[in-house]
Records
---
Amino acid sequence: MNLVDVKNVSFAYSENNFVLQNISFSLQKGSVAIIGQNGSGKTTLVKLLKGLLKPKVGDVFIKGINTKDTTAAKLAKTVGLVFQNPNDQIFKNKVLDEVMFGPLNIGQSVDEARENALRALEIVSLTEKSQENPYDLSLSERKLISIASILSMNTDIVIFDEPTIAQDCWGKTRVKDIVRLLVSAGKLVITITHDMDFVGECFERVIVLNKGKLLLDGSAKDVFSQEDVLSAAYLEPPYITQLCHQLHYDEVFLSPESFISYYESHRQKKETNDAKH
Amino acid sequence: MVVKKTIVVENLKYRYPNTSKLALDSISFSVDEGQFVGIVGKNLAGKSTLCEALVGLVPHFYKGAYGGKVVVDGVEVLNSSIGEMARHIGIVFQNPFTQITAAKLTVYEEIAFGLENLGMDRVEMVKRIDYVLDLLGLYDFKDRNPFELSGGQMQRLAIAGIIAMKPTVIVLDEPTSQLDPQGSEEVFKAVQRLSKEGVTIVMVEQKMEKIAQYADKVMLISEGKMIDFDSPQKLFSREDLENFGVEPPVFTTIAKKLNVKDETTGLYPVTIDEARRLFSL
Amino acid sequence: MARALSLYVETNTFLQKLDPMVKLLYILLSILLPFLILPYRVVGLTFILISCLLLLYGKVFKKVLPLLGFSFLILISIVIIQGLFMQSNRTPAFTIDGLTFYKEGLLYAWTLCIRVLDVLLAFALLVLTTRPSDLIQSLVKRGLSPRFGYVLSSALQIIPQMMSEVGSIMDAQRSRGLETEGNLWTRLKAFVPLIGPVVMSSLLETRERAMALEVRGFSAIGKKTFLFDTEMTLLDKILEWVLGILLLISIIVRIVWL
Ligand SMILES: Nc1ncnc2c1ncn2[C@@H]1O[C@H](COP(=O)(O)OP(=O)(O)OP(=O)(O)O)[C@@H](O)[C@H]1O
Ligand SMILES: Nc1ncnc2c1ncn2[C@@H]1O[C@H](COP(=O)(O)OP(=O)(O)O)[C@@H](O)[C@H]1O
Ligand SMILES: [Mg+2]
Ligand SMILES: [Mg+2]
């Protein structure tokens, strides 16, 4: 059974002004990035997956259950969503209470919930802030708190809406680690992001939305090799991929590491060649 | 010809109320008219606080302990009010969601808000609004309620509202964090164009590749102190950058690992053009 | 979540085009007249009737219904409490289940209800048919400080702002497993713990919004201009005078009378 099935889904906030049109795809465990222009419908799409919005046309199935037949609260055991704006998500006066809120609601005991919350805070390295008021923290910290409060629920599907907003390189590395950790734990990780280097480094599959329609759906390599299509959707490949393209390499590289090893072996080949002549 | 200094900061020290650590510690620098300055540093380094000190929110809004001097467009911030400083300097905040005034019902009127306050002539007002709507790709949304925009669209609106006011100095605090790749490219291009027209730009960014490409000078801040203020090439070539929690552009990172340098300057590549030149075998 | 922070409805009737000052005067009249002119209840009822007709005419009556629903809860409790327990209760009116309601209390509650509804509907008329920025603009043009205009307009927007805040926090809660959909009891249970966070984040938002206003020159010294410079129409002026004079006369009459 698929974890997520989206079947011919269309959605409009107001009468007939459709912001998503006839979207279909299925997802298994693994990592998926959703990319697209501002306003292309990414946030709307994940709110549909989460059951916060219901499709106007078509159906969304989470583990075979139609979101129209259940509530967002019931889906919380299966799907966790980290909101784009942490201010929309955080409402408790103490960090630990905020992170424990989800686990307590889905039926964990207080001790279990506390344990999970503390583990989640450790993952985002904010253990020492557990007694503080989230409103006193900076935007970057609040974003990490909102991530922790979803991690603590230990759901099979985890959705991040632009997790790297306001993060410095340390924070971005943290987020990358979290994605890898979740994938290795056998979960489905769906991430919306505008950071193409992040996509190139961490995601197997990429879904591209353009003006409410599904434009591309494939492996990261496939998607990023189609520079023209991407550019029409106001996107671009990772910087490394762009560099390879400009250097006229045949292969598509998505991460700095793969570029470095390729370049090094070529440089050596060239040096030995030069030495021969 | 003597170039006008639009920002002069002398020995600026600042501590937020009820805290013990200096958020800004002995910062001194100056910026020429029309220069594009990038500010980099890790989270909590003090970048946003410095921005707020330039527009006067520090100390007028936050209070706290303040020392030193900040002069913007010839006006000393300490002796002026935030409202008056708005004639000289504008700021785009880090979080676009809290930047909507809520006094206006459409995107169009929201942009007009600042212009009305400055008493701008109506014909000029309409011209500028149309210009920024176009510049930031917001034309289709001009009659939309600002709270019904997507995150990125809201960020575009925040930028539009300030650019329309055309102050002498524009401060942007991570203004492209939620923009799509071409959107942030467009913002950088627009901002660069403004700086060519003489507007002084101060921009905090985490996108080092873009800062390296567009900024004239880059400032590195760590723990409230200014560590360096130099050309992107020199600053990003520093071997100790990681100690301050900053990763250089990805081109510089790979060049450092592969030890590929420009032979004449001894510096690493920081932009894709420099990288292409140095990496061709 | 729709986060439109305003109750204003664009229906393009003459009410929307009317100068906000006229509507403010109307509110003033509807508050004062039922105190100043003697058949209190008749005057109050007349205003209620006028407001209802205007709201219907402005095609915004539907929007008042939830507001009325909410205030009925309060009004009914007033009727019950005053009818049963008011100090000056002497004459029994009727008895239900052994509980005796008294005439004095009921009459007093009836007066109170009329006043509350009267004021509520008059304010609804202003809020539902006036753009917040028009209100500020109209006040500023008459020489009031823009700050006062903004405070007034945000006071009027408190309800929609809280509602939008409730909306987003409820989304956050049901995303993490708190049931907020379903029967009245479930909703009520979810609603109570919301009050604290809503007040908290509204306050915070107000603070950050104040910064956003300041840096865009809200309190800059000097003359402001307006994007839509609406001139007062002849009708606006006439109505303003008529309402103003009405107010004056009733005050004078009242003073002479005493
Ligand atoms: N509450 C709302 N009411 C009406 N329209 C909305 C609302 N929220 C979003 N929209 C519109 O729906 C479209 C899709 O918005 P959505 O938030 O899903 O975009 P997104 O892809 O997440 O964009 P971004 O990258 O900027 O976050 C946009 O045109 C937006 O203006
Ligand atoms: N409103 C505030 N009250 C108290 N301390 C603050 C406030 N805002 C920021 N700080 C503190 O000031 C320092 C610099 O923060 P900030 O300027 O936001 O950094 P950056 O923008 O570089 O991430 C941090 O130690 C932070 O905790
Ligand atoms: Mg979004
Ligand atoms: Mg900051």
---
Amino acid sequence: MGYVMTKQRMDEVLTSLRETYRVYAPKKVGKFIRYGEVKSMEEIVFDEKSHFSPKEVFYPIVQTLLYFSENDVRESEVDARPVVLFLRPCDINGIHRLDTIFMENGGKADNFYQRLREKVKFFLMECCESFETCFCVSMGSNATDDYAVAVRVNDDGVFVEVKDETFANLFSGEAACDFTPAFVTENKRKVNVPAITDRAMVKDIHALEMWREFDDNCIGCGGCNTVCITCSCFDTTDIIYNETSRDGERRRVWSSCMLNDYSTVAGGHNVRAKAGDRMRFKAMHKLYDYNARFGKGNMCVGCGRCDMRCPKDIHFSETIDKLAAAVETLKEGKEC
Amino acid sequence: MNNITLPQPHKIIKIIHETKAEYTFRVHYEGKTDHGQFFMLSIPKIGEAPISVSSRGEDYVEFTIRKVGRLTDGLFGMNEGDTLFMRGPYGNAFPVENFKGKNLVVVAGGTGMAPVRSMLQYFAAHPEEIQSVYFIVGFKDRDAVLFEDDLAAFAKAEKFHTIYCLDNMEAEGFHKGFVTNYIKDVPFAEFDDFNVAIVGPPAMIGFTAKECVKNGVSEEKIWVSFERKMSCAVGKCGHCKINETYVCLEGPVFNYTKAKELLD
Ligand SMILES: Cc1cc2nc3c(=O)[nH]c(=O)nc-3n(C[C@H](O)[C@H](O)[C@H](O)COP(=O)(O)OP(=O)(O)OC[C@H]3O[C@@H](n4cnc5c(N)ncnc54)[C@H](O)[C@@H]3O)c2cc1C
Ligand code: SF4
Ligand code: SF4
Ligand code: FES
């Protein structure tokens, strides 16, 4: 069902929503646009892309998992209220990638992810125009039908499409219209996705000269992973409240495959000691490994946030293009 | 909802000092484990780490641990009767059913002996289930030698042929040199069927596998066990991933035909 209303009316809807739900959306936080709880439409940034992804709403940067006392362990608890999350199509597709890892990989769901994730209802923010660094169309992640409610905001008011019946009564008093969201069909930034057709090519890709340029350029800060909607890696760390106490907790903290010690094992042996090796690892996960394992397309959804974030102006979209070209060259080399 | 990463308290029954830097912890446990699997051991407030089962009893498992950092330091400070936390067992195992009735060659380096120890103990106790066992193990020096009792027992065990070596010294019962020097002494050509299991540091695994291939062993007869950083052991944290493979899920034991295609 579609409805149209004024921003003021939508604010009243948000107010009633907030009686049951925590409502999260991209908003201005200092110089960044990132996810936080919102009370009104005014707070939600519709006309720019958020610097950070919505994943932190249900997969926090730091999360307490367990509490320990001397000989006992207890699971932490989470806010019982459900969540309404305003987000873009690419992010919804990105969350499907996170779901694959946390809910499916290894055949069992990760409880700490699941308990927050299952509380989330998607409110799709229509993208009427692509932003500067987006390349979602090339990645095939510009559209989705997985949302409870879709929202368009323009000078004529707020248009919504309600797909999830649980939200229908919130809008039942509004003027009906036949709104459904449109999706971006062209980005300024276009990439060629590498067509790695044969597992045997992985060895040649491993040896490509192109990775060496990152040995000096990339400082391994992990910023690109932090903003990425599809990066799921974490570390587990324990903390003790004070030296004399026996009580403490186990926490899950976001990790990053671009960090130097991501894969360092006992004895100091680092399986990917150079920044270029780690860039190759990341690129291959986003563009080959995920699909090879799950058969669900590429992991990267082309949100372009990593390109905005990198302090060294490394553009992942350019890396994708370079890899695609190198892969074509490898194929030609093989054929003749 | 059954939490897949929730650790459970277990009592330490016994601590055996193997070397200065390696202790064996016998921990109360009654569930099932297979040869080559591992547990996530933890001490609350200090941390968690993957550790292989190095031996099994009816109501216990043993872990042989090398002191290298935070968690392992913490374990070395514990006493018999203390409680540690663990979850598991995780990972696949050596295909022992497929090893039975054939010849088995086991090549191990240092603490790498831990994941194959229970399998060796099994065949030493059940010689009727195997044609022969060739066991080659290397340690850095005399002080680094682990499992003295097992080494003595294996040397005498029916159908066992053992070669023990030290990297750069000679000693009673030990040859001098790397395990790779002794691969040529295994009579592969006389075996009608056999398997090779290799465990140890990454470089040792690589060199040993190549040496085996040089001696006419086909790759599909070789099995290796990988160690990678692990933070979850259930396919979520990403640390152990190599290409499209997760060592904690599909490993740690891999057939060499697969292992050699995994490029970090
Ligand atoms: C499947 C598997 C089986 C293992 N079996 C045994 C065993 O039987 N006995 C044994 O002594 N060790 C074993 N290890 C290695 C053991 O897990 C590490 O030595 C341990 O994690 C170090 O933890 P720590 O907190 O003491 O060290 P930390 O303080 O975390 O770090 C010390 C050093 O170890 C590295 N490290 C951290 N985590 C790991 C990790 N998970 N694996 C390897 N290195 C790591 C660090 O980068 C650093 O260089 C096994 C590892 C795996 C993956
Ligand atoms: S790799 Fe970059 S463009 Fe792709 S999903 Fe992650 S942040 Fe977005
Ligand atoms: S943000 Fe840039 S410099 Fe930092 S790790 Fe990523 S690519 Fe390297
Ligand atoms: S150890 Fe976490 S994914 Fe394998």
